[in-house]
């Protein structure tokens, strides 16, 4: 008994002495240096510079290094700025909702209903990702334009007498294009989540007398929620930062917050105000990511309890 206790104590001392050495392994530190430099140069330094620059002023086109909160005050008191942010959040919400509503049934169909050539169908769905973003945006401009495919089709079947202007240069065109662009990304996230659901749980639910709808509502949907949350977060955040689709398809009446930042940096030469709006947008995005992270943890804990 004493020998065993001594052996256990010796083993514990070895573990305690070895752990710090492994943690401070010089090779590990050498491997960490490149990503730390990369994050510092391309992430932390730009954000810190943006944050500092947001407190300066512009006087007759020249940036004055005079500390002030005037840029943040201007944002929250000028309807053009905070109104554009609210409009951007609305567009991002609708794009996310439509992307999930389109992506989830399609991912479910591919994963559970298709028995042959499943990978081929999945590849066909994500093929749009192989095409340039600009090409897809311009394609919708061709479809929705006055002389586009949609107006030509409606004229041919006699629904309208002259081309309509409401399709292009409107929030609806922006929402439609962004939904088309981000739905494949949402589908990939949901499809991966559905693939990892154990088949025996679905079979057990059916053996216990649950129908298809109840099995989906009680088993499949809760277990696939991490994928839904990840895909929805992806679509929402990227929509908030998009400025090409609103510029090509939305016109002046459908500007989003990224278009405002772009104009302040590139046209108005008001970098401090653009930096302030960028920081506010960044804070909102971080808040959304934190909420999504907490929701994912809750759904993951539910999944762990179910698997047990």
UniProtKB/TrEMBL annotation:
Q: Where is the ABC transmembrane type-1 domain?
A: 85-292
Q: Name one GO cellular component term.
A: plasma membrane
Transmembrane ranges, per UniProt, are 28-52, 91-110, 122-140, 172-194, 215-240, 260-289
> Could you tell me the membrane topology recorded for this protein?
Multi-pass membrane protein
Q: Which CDD domains match?
A: TM_PBP2
Keywords from the UniProt entry? Cell membrane, Membrane, Transmembrane, Transmembrane helix, Transport
Would the keyword Transmembrane helix be found if you checked this record's keyword annotation?
A: yes
Protein's GO biological process: transmembrane transport
The record's Pfam families line, in alphabetical order, gives: BPD_transp_1
Q: Where in the cell is it found?
A: Cell membrane
Q: Which PANTHER family match?
A: INNER MEMBRANE ABC TRANSPORTER PERMEASE PROTEIN YDCU-RELATED, INNER MEMBRANE ABC TRANSPORTER PERMEASE PROTEIN YDCU-RELATED-RELATED
For this chain, the family text in UniProt reads:
Belongs to the binding-protein-dependent transport system permease family. CysTW subfamily.
Recorded protein name is Spermidine/putrescine ABC transporter permease
């Amino acid at each position: 008994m004493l020998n065993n206790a001594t052996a256990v104590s010796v083993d514990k001392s070895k573990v305690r002495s070895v752990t710090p050495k492994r943690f401070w392994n010089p090779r590990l530190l050498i491997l960490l240096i490149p990503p730390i430099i990369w994050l510092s140069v391309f992430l932390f330094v730009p954000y810190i510079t943006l944050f500092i620059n947001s407190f300066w002023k512009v006087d007759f086109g020249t940036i004055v290094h005079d500390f002030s909160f005037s840029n943040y005050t201007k944002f929250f008191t000028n309807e053009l700025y905070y109104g554009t942010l609210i409009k951007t959040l609305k567009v991002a919400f609708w794009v996310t909702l439509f992307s999930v509503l389109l992506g989830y049934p399609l991912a479910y169909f591919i994963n559970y209903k298709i028995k042959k050539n499943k990978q081929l169908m999945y590849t066909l769905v994500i093929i749009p990702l192989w095409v340039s973003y600009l090409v897809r945006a311009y394609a919708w401009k061709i479809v929705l334009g006055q002389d586009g495919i949609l107006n030509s089709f409606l004229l041919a079947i006699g629904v309208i007498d002259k081309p309509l202007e409401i399709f292009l240069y409107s929030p609806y065109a922006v929402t439609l294009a962004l939904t088309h662009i981000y739905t494949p990304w949402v589908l990939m996230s949901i499809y991966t989540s559905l693939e990892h659901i154990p088949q025996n749980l679905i079979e057990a639910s059916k053996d216990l007398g649950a129908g298809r709808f109840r099995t989906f509502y009680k088993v499949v949907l809760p277990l696939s929620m991490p994928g839904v949350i990840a895909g929805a977060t992806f679509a929402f955040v990227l929509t908030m930062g998009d400025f090409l689709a609103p510029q090509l398809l939305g016109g002046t009446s459908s500007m989003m917050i990224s278009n405002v930042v772009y104009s302040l940096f590139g046209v108005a030469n008001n970098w401090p105000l653009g930096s302030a709006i960028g920081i506010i947008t960044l804070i909102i995005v971080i808040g959304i990511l934190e909420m999504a992270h907490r929701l994912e943890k809750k759904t993951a804990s539910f999944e762990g309890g179910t698997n047990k």
